[in-house]
Specification:
Order of helices and strands: EEHHHHH
Distance between the termini: 112 Å
Number of helices: 5
Shape: elongated
Structural class: mainly alpha
Low-confidence stretches: none
C-alpha cells in the first residue's frame, strides 16, 4: 500500500504477468552419450548429483539411457516421434493406388492416341481411293 499527497491510501496492483509454459527438453543421441560418459567418469561423492543439477536432468533419465546403451538401441537414444505409428500396409496400399491411377491415365491417353490414328488412317484412305491397301 502507498499513500499519495492527499493522504488517501492506494493498494498496489498485483503482478499479473503470465509466465510462458516450460518446454520439455529434448536430448539428441550425442548429448545423451556425452552425459553418460561424464557420469561414468565421476569418482567422488556428490559428483553425479552436481552433474545432474548442471544438466537439469533426473537420475531416472540415466537409468533409461544406460539400458538403451547396453541394448545397443541407438535409435532409442534419439527422441521418439509421438503419436500413432503409420501402418505399413496402408502406406503400401496408398502407393499402389497412386500407381494404378497413373497407369490408368496413361492407358486412357494411349487409347485416345490410337483412336486418333485410326481416324486419320481412315480419312487418308477415303481421300486417296487409288491406294490398293
Amino acid at each position: 500500500m502507498s499513500e499519495n499527497s492527499s493522504g488517501t491510501v492506494k493498494e498496489a496492483m498485483p503482478n499479473t504477468e503470465v509466465v510462458a509454459k516450460a518446454k520439455r527438453k529434448r536430448f539428441t543421441a550425442a548429448e545423451k552419450l556425452r552425459i553418460l560418459r561424464e557420469v561414468d567418469a565421476c569418482q567422488g561423492s556428490g559428483e553425479v548429483g552436481a552433474l545432474l543439477r548442471r544438466e537439469g536432468i533426473y537420475s531416472s533419465y540415466l537409468t533409461t539411457w544406460r539400458r538403451q546403451r547396453e541394448r545397443g538401441e541407438l535409435e532409442g537414444l534419439a527422441p521418439q516421434k509421438r503419436g500413432p505409428k503409420p501402418d505399413p500396409q496402408a502406406i503400401e496400399l496408398a502407393k499402389l493406388r497412386r500407381e494404378n491411377e497413373r497407369l490408368q491415365e496413361r492407358l486412357r491417353q494411349a487409347e485416345l492416341i490410337i483412336d486418333v490414328q485410326k481416324k486419320v488412317a481412315q480419312m487418308l484412305k477415303e481421300h486417296n481411293p487409288e491406294d490398293p491397301s
